[in-house]
Amino acid sequence: MKIAKIIVDVPSMQTDKPFSYVVPEALETLVAIGMRVHVPFGRGNRLMQGFIVGFESQELVENQGNRLQDLKVIAEVLDFEPVLNAEQLALADKMRETVFAYKISILKAMLPNLLNSSYDKVLTALDPQVASDYFENADEIHFSSLDEVMQATMMKLQREGKVSVRYVAQSKETIKTKKVVSLTNHAQLLALTISARAKKKLAMQTFLQHEPEGKVWDNTELVALFSRDVVKFFIGNGVLTLSDVEVSRSQDYFENIETDTQKTLNAEQKAAYEAIITSQDKPFLLEGVTGSGKTEVYLQVIAHVIDAGKTAIMLVPEISLTPMMTSRFIARFGENVAIMHSGLSDGEKYDEWRKIAAGKAKVVVGARSAIFVPLANIGAIIIDEEHETSYKQDSNPRYHARDIALLRAQYHGAALVLGSATPSLETRARAQQGVYQLLRLTQRANQAAQIPEVRLLDMRKHLNDKSASFSQVMLDKIAEKVSKKEQVVLMLNRRGYSSFIMCRDCGFVPECPNCDISLTLHMDTKTLNCHYCGHTQGIPYTCPNCQSNKIRYYGSGTQKVEEELQELMPEARILRMDVDTTKKKGAHERILSSFGAGQADILLGTQMIAKGLDFPNVTLVGVINADTALNLPDFRASERTFQLLTQVAGRAGRAEKSGEVLIQTFNPDHYAIKLAQTHDYEQFYQTEMAFRRKLAYPPYYFTVQLVISHKNEEITVKKSYEILSLLQAHLTDKARVLGPIAKPIARTHNLYHYQLLIKYRFEDHLADALNDVLDLTQLRENKELRVMIDSEPQNFM
DNA sequence: AGCACGCCGACT
DNA sequence: GTCGGCGTGCTC
């Protein structure tokens, strides 16, 4: 008897371990580690998806106190080939040491969504009365298709024994196919006698006679040429054979892309390239100013890796993963490229994944989760814009792609390259210590392109200008550029600063009923939306508080600024790009290509325009509000501001025309803004490191954040202190715990949130402490309590 | 997560 | 006396 160890799809503390199941005899030689199965689980034997993570001997099972006859049998093996390989399973084990998440969540994160089964219950009527009342003509009803009231009714009927329930688990993957016909019997074709009246058939016979045996057509193509019946006739006579052929759902991005050849590297690029390809297992930090040609270095490193018969992973931040960006890789590597990003449908992602798993892709370009792709024989892993916080997943499992990359690079002996113009302090500090090898690109690759001049506009002096959002200098400059037929990019850093409505008489601001946050005004849909829980309501005409009709709109969201700018410059053509205008698939690309084609003068957008845009005609970049990120309660606020401003400044003057950058700020003396003005990363690094050291923040200290949530504020506070003392019992006095304090947004989704922040350098018992916290949350009295543990948090909002 | 077992209150 | 409320513990 073969016994498999299986991790089941129940994310809870008590089930976070392998369960033993008997492998059906017929499948004994076919099952393998890493395959998905369906197994009966729990008293109800509901079917669950699980992953085989190992096999066990009978003696071992019995030693664990299980009787063999009590073991259940695997209901279904879902795969012919394992979906997780040995490396991925080992990686999951390693991840569990640092990422506080259940094994099953980690395993599921490594696979495309379609490979995770969906569950349902199928109901059958046992009572004729029930059958006619509820089932109409159907033999079975799917539980999930019913509304809540009917679901309750069915549960009651089930208890009364009038309805039976069967659990089903279903793997969702589908392989897209198309029908093709192939010419398989030429002799038969010639032998056919066709009536002279059947013109279409005769025509097709003649057509086929001139085609070689074995030729393949799309079924639809032939049907269009002749007709369905005629094609069917030849299939029926054995001349043609109809078959299904697998098609990839994402082939179209290979079309219309011209191939591209390597560019010559300058001396700095060359040196970096040489260092990377002769890698001695130390990771690299490639620190290069915007426009210094980091991407060309990446491309050539990847080309080198492919020539050596290996593969590569290229990670870029989600918002940079535009067709414009991916086409550079496709242009260089053609069909060797697979793209993985969230814009793809589940089916498309699955197809890309299979292409990779089958070894048909040599280069994977993707966002965070692409770090898990089942590439074999990896020669290089490159993380561009390494400082981007989107590399850290902000829901379970809270992994950082950089950490995973480190593990995978180690496993494969691959070169790891972290690239950025403004590296995160953590990474830069490691380079300083010699943990990473620092490679610098200090010159723009395009010699003609000058580093743009940056001017700061002190908004304190412009408060009386006629516009709320723009200083006169900025307006004049924009007008000048527009009249010269040059283009302008304006960035509105909207974070934590959206438009809202307020009553002029009593100061009332509508807030979300579930969250402690004012609602954001959306003029396009004429609604007030909560950006945290998604609550939507209409815009009141009179104040709900004092019935005054003096409701006014405040703040400067992109919509508001667009309207204002349009009013001030009626002749300018403005394109707006933010989450609202780019929601639809391909919208992002459409906006950019229309701007690139000169169909607009001004591109107004949020942070997403700071990344990688490269338009030669853009000669002015304006930042409308540089300070909003600066005032956030986050120790990385300065770092974020500096990175963002440096990046957006790099958008100007990419070609022959020289560029200008104007930054509007209320804090012109702040070091993050002043040093962004002079493009002085090195000075910023030194200054910021001094602060971090003084305040004991990363990279000098490690951090773990705990967020405690409960619907009752008092309980939240009480439990937070309980957890605090639990932690202190394990931690040395060298560790510092901040809090509990209310989160900046104290209530969302009807829950109060308090946070604790542990700062430490060496704590042997940290894991024990956190496990104790988890145990605490498992107590029944804490059922309603939610505790989130985040190692090295990136966001404190 | 979801289900059964089991121990207490409101009814036939 | 029973039906059913949900608190507690377990799932190979």
TrEMBL record:
Q: How is the cofactor bound?
A: Binds 2 zinc ions per subunit.
A Pfam family of this chain: PriA_C
Keyword Zinc on this protein? Answer: yes
- SUPFAM superfamilies in alphabetical order: P-loop containing nucleoside triphosphate hydrolases
Q: Which residues does the annotation say bind Zn(2+) 2? A: C512, C515, C530, C533
**NCBIfam families annotated for this entry?**
priA (TIGR00595), PRK05580.1-3 (NF004066), PRK05580.1-5 (NF004068)
Q: What is this protein called?
A: Replication restart protein PriA
Gene of this entry: priA
